[in-house]
């Protein structure tokens, strides 16, 4: 894989360089609540701009449905990128249309532009190769060189991640090079006990990775939204909690396989429940109570691991040599459901292990809840991406950067 250092050594002055970033930041309206992913791509954008490139930054944000949707505009991220760079950043109000074309052709050497959300175009995420290729052709028209630096999206076979690099000279940016460098160590030479803590809301994606992780980790702790599919599979009432019905049989098999192979698969013994999903804006009290995992009322939903689970998970992390954690244990954005995530973050810091925290929301949670991000071994900008890398999968966005 060629890195940006080679590109810079060859000279990029005057060239249009397409930087596929992951600027998928958490938003409260148009306010960015954590800008970690924007800061993470700064070294690449700055190095290119300083070298006189015309830098075209592109990203997805959220999961719009292949058409423009103002809720998912990248405009706030473009503004923040400009503030962090200390320079004006142009913003194109579309991705491959008139605004993008004129914005890119108006760039002077050393200037930066951000395109509107890639996922406003159905071709970006299409499963149809031809539809993706057609969109990648349009993107390729905007640039001379491609730099892949959106680590959080390298597990997606999307046009800007997978198809576009094939059409342009391509290089890995600083962020991807750093992320892969750290995660590679966890696949090659992991110190044991190796504990993996999983949570979050992308339940379907994350349940699927357990299949491979069972062969790699010594202990897997299950929290967040995915816990309830396990509890349901045990026959428990889970009320209105998140449920991945089509994976009930798979999780039953995971539990059996873990028992057979001596992997500890640890489930919550209690949960913090409430009658409805909390208001994350007002943060009004949510009528939360802690109940045993096998006593969840049918008219409530599980929104965090409970106090006994917090102690249990901390004890399972305490003697680890390596911990990989992806996915908040609960709806940490609301104070009534943040304790599980806080307890796991604290347990990582209290252990003497090498700690890796992965995922946009997990990394944001660590910072928003007041932990010192530098106290962790590595904070990865990708959750699904780092998990799939640790599974040993070939990631489309990394394969596409190979020579
Ligand atoms: N029990 C739960 N029910 C619903 N949402 C949850 C639950 N636990 C955690 N979450 C949500 O999971 C989200 C993060 O999930 P995800 O995107 O999978 O993590 P990451 O970005 O770290 O990979 C957070 O916004 C949090 O509110
Ligand atoms: O937030 C992301 O992934 P993550 O939640 O696994 O860290 C990436 O931006 C990828 O987004 P996607 O899961 O909508 O493809």
UniProtKB/TrEMBL annotation:
Its EC number is 2.7.2.3. Keywords: ATP-binding, Cytoplasm, Glycolysis, Kinase, Nucleotide-binding, Transferase. It is an enzyme of class 2 (transferase). The keyword Transferase applies. Pathway: Carbohydrate degradation; glycolysis; pyruvate from D-glyceraldehyde 3-phosphate: step 2/5. It is found in: Cytoplasm. Gene3D superfamilies: Phosphoglycerate kinase, N-terminal domain. It catalyses: (2R)-3-phosphoglycerate + ATP = (2R)-3-phospho-glyceroyl phosphate + ADP. Its main location: cytoplasm. The keyword Nucleotidyltransferase does not apply. ATP binds at residues 206, 302, 333, 359-362. InterPro entries: Phosphoglycerate_kinase (IPR001576), Phosphoglycerate_kinase_CS (IPR015911), Phosphoglycerate_kinase_N (IPR015824), Phosphoglycerate_kinase_sf (IPR036043). Pfam families: PGK (PF00162). Substrate binds at residues 22-24, 37, 60-63, 119, 156. It comes from the Bacteria. One of its GO terms (molecular function) is kinase activity. Monomer. Belongs to the phosphoglycerate kinase family. This is Phosphoglycerate kinase. It comes from Streptomyces graminofaciens. The gene is pgk.
């Amino acid at each position: 894989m060629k890195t940006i250092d080679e590109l810079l050594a060859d000279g990029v002055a005057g060239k249009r360089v397409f930087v596929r970033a992951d600027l998928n930041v958490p938003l409260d309206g148009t306010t960015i609540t954590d800008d970690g992913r924007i800061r993470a791509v700064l070294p690449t954008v700055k190095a290119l701009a300083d070298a006189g490139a015309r830098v075209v930054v592109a990203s997805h944000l959220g999961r719009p449905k292949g058409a423009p949707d103002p809720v998912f505009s990248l405009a706030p991220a473009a503004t923040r990128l400009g503030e962090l760079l200390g320079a004006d950043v142009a913003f194109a109000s579309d991705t491959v249309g008139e605004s993008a074309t004129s914005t890119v052709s108006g760039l002077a050497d050393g200037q930066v532009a951000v395109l509107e959300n890639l996922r406003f175009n159905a071709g970006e995420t299409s499963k149809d190769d031809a539809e993706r290729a057609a969109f990648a052709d349009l993107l390729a028209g905007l640039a001379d060189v491609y730099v892949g630096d959106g680590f959080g999206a390298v597990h997606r076979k999307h046009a800007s991640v997978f198809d576009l690099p094939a059409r342009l000279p391509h290089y890995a940016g600083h962020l991807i090079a750093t992320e892969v460098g750290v995660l590679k160590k966890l696949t090659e030479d992991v110190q044991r006990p190796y504990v993996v803590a999983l949570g979050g809301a992308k339940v379907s994606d994350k349940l699927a990775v357990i299949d491979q992780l069972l062969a790699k980790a010594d202990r897997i702790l299950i929290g967040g939204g995915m816990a309830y599919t396990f509890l349901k599979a045990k026959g428990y009432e889970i009320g209105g909690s998140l449920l991945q019905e089509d994976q009930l049989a798979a999780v039953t098999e995971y539990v059996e396989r873990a028992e057979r192979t001596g992997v500890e698969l640890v489930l919550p013994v209690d949960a913090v429940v409430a009658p409805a999903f909390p208001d994350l804006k007002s943060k009004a009290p949510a009528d939360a109570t802690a109940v045993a995992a096998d006593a969840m009322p049918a008219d409530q939903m599980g929104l965090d691991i409970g106090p006994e689970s917090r102690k249990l998970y901390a004890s399972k992390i305490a003697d680890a040599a390596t911990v990989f954690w992806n996915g908040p244990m609960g709806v940490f954005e609301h104070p009534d459901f943040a304790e599980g995530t806080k307890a796991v973050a604290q347990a990582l810091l209290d252990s003497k292990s090498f700690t890796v925290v992965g995922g946009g929301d997990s990394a944001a949670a660590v910072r928003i809840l007041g932990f010192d991000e530098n106290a962790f071994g590595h904070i990865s900008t990708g959750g699904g991406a780092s998990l799939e890398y640790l599974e040993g999968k070939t990631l489309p966005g990394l394969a596409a950067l190979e020579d």
